[in-house]
Amino acid sequence: MDFTEDIVRQGKRQGEDVTSHSTVKKAKGSIFSVNTSKPDLELLKEAYNLLTSREKHDFELRFGCIVDLLSVVPDWDLFRAMLRFYVPQYRAFVFPQFELVLTIDEYHHFLRCSPAVDSCSFTPQVQRMQFTQTKVQEMLHAMWDFSFEFSRPLVTTRNNSYGFDWNAALMALGTRLESMTSSQKINFVALGIYGMVIFPIHVRNIAPMVIVLFEQLLHTSAFNPAPTVVAETLRSMGNIRVEGSGRFLSCIELFTMWAYGHLRGPQFEALLGVPVKDRKVEDWHRSLLAATVNDVRFVLPNWKATHYLAPPEGRHSIPLLGIQGGVTYSVELASRQFGKAQRVPYFDEALQSHFDYASSSVVTSKISEAQEAWEKCRMLPIWKEKGTRPQYDQWRPSWITKLSLPLEVTNTKNSIIMDLTAELEFSHTQRRQLQKKYDELAFDYEFLKRGKELSDQQVAILKDKIASLEKDLAASNEICDKQKRSLEFARGRKERLLELKADLKVKEEQNKELTNKVTKQQELKERVVKWRNAYNNLLSDYDALQKELQIAKQSEQGEKGEHNLSA
């Protein structure tokens, strides 16, 4: 059974909603405060269910299995617990007895996208990173032919940053969604998943840089989003680790699937059997501290990899480009995850490749360098070599000591102090929440105020349009009356024509009867002529017979006279 389907079914079995609206939450004894707010995904699920079976099949062929992320229950407590062991210098989770690394190859496995070989990486367009409302409207018009009047209220601003309100767009489209082509509907739903699940940069709308990435995804057949997702995941975890708090700006669902895929040993069986809402950060922390190499599946289940993505020759890491900045990616600590022996990693102490597009002055050169390095990456075969190398076994103890990992859970002797500290931190968190809500309400007020001004202008424009439409309506009524009179006249002529046609038909029948009578009379005349000729012939024969009879009588009388004379 596929592990991805197992995770999806587990979330459905527990009956928990994927769209968590929990606010900033600080657990007792926790080091980091993580904002777990996520966009509302109910409309996104309904939009996907509106697709036909054929369209869903095309969706999976084009974008992989990203729709499965809608059914994954995010485990924020596991994320907070693992974040304690994240070391930004190595881009890895370092536990007391083992290490785990987010790898591009594993994210390929979950997304089921095209392989890393011969694939194109994300190309940030720095000149387009200064977004305006018009630029966002132009991108929407290029992808879905949205008019500027239609997309203007859908492009919102927050903290001087514009975004696309996907949910409002779906509500505004309404029945127009059915008239869109299959490709447009598929792309529209895919953008919602990319902007609200995979890259939730903004809570209420889709960030414009996500639209830029989605444009490249549509126009490049070999584009692979996995490196960009890994880059944003590493950047976001590094920022939270350094600042001590923040919001995770990458896909928590993918991170949950990845973590569950590795933490499948006996140490985690009891914890994984508990619903997500009943687990705590301390439980995960305690299990991670006690876990050994036998409690971890270094190679993901049902993943039969023969090659892995390796840096170019002469480099120890791969520069990755996210949608907000760049970061390095090293697979040296992930050797056991590819079925190889673990070895000593390269230490990136300067973190030179971690940069933001907005703040770096040499961002263009760094982007070019990262793209050149990506094109030179290699796919190396995996040699089955379990265990660790001797150099690694000698190096790791001193290395763990230098990292100062959190090797203890909350101390029971200082529980009162820790509780007070946690309550104080929680009150600060509530204050930040209230301040955030106040900022949101102020933003909504300004937005509604601006909307009212725009609506007043639109009302004036509509009044002018109504006046012009009334004039057009009066003119059309006059034309309609003329056409009505013409129609009545035409109907009268039509009725007269029908009457004439009926009379003509009667006359034709009468004419036909007369023609038949004339024909019969002509036949009778011919018969009379024949009879007259026959009568005349009979009369001539009668006259001839009369004459012959007279001649015969005369001859008979002559003979009688002669006889009498002789007698």
Provide structural commentary.
The radius of gyration is 48 Å and the shape is elongated. Helices cover 58% and strands 7% of the residues. It has helices at 3-14, 42-49, 53-63, 76-83, 104-111, 133-144, 148-151, 166-173, 176-179, 182-198, 208-219, 226-243, 252-262, 266-272, 281-290, 363-375, 390-403, 415-566, and strands at residues 33-35, 86-87, 92-94, 99-100, 155-158, 161-164, 245-247, 307-310, 318-321, 325-329, 355-356, 378-381. A hairpin with a 2-residue loop joins β5 and β6. The strands form five sheets. It has a three-stranded antiparallel sheet with strand order 2-3-4. Strands 9-10-11 form a three-stranded antiparallel sheet. With 567 residues, the chain is mainly alpha-helical. It is built from 18 helices and twelve strands. The model is unreliable at 1-31 and 409-427 (pLDDT under 50).
Rounded average pLDDT = 77
User: Could you give the order of strands across the largest sheet?
Assistant: 2-3-4
Count of DSSP-assigned helices: 18
Shape: elongated
* Share of residues in strands: 5-15%
Termini separation: 159 Å
Structural class: mainly alpha
What would you report as the Rg, rounded to the nearest angstrom?
48 Å
Query: What is the helix content?
Result: 55-70%
Q: How many β-strand stretches?
A: 12
User: Which spans have pLDDT < 50 for at least 5 consecutive residues?
Assistant: 1-31, 409-427
Order of helices and strands: HEHHHEEEHHHEEHHHHHEHHHEEEEHEHH
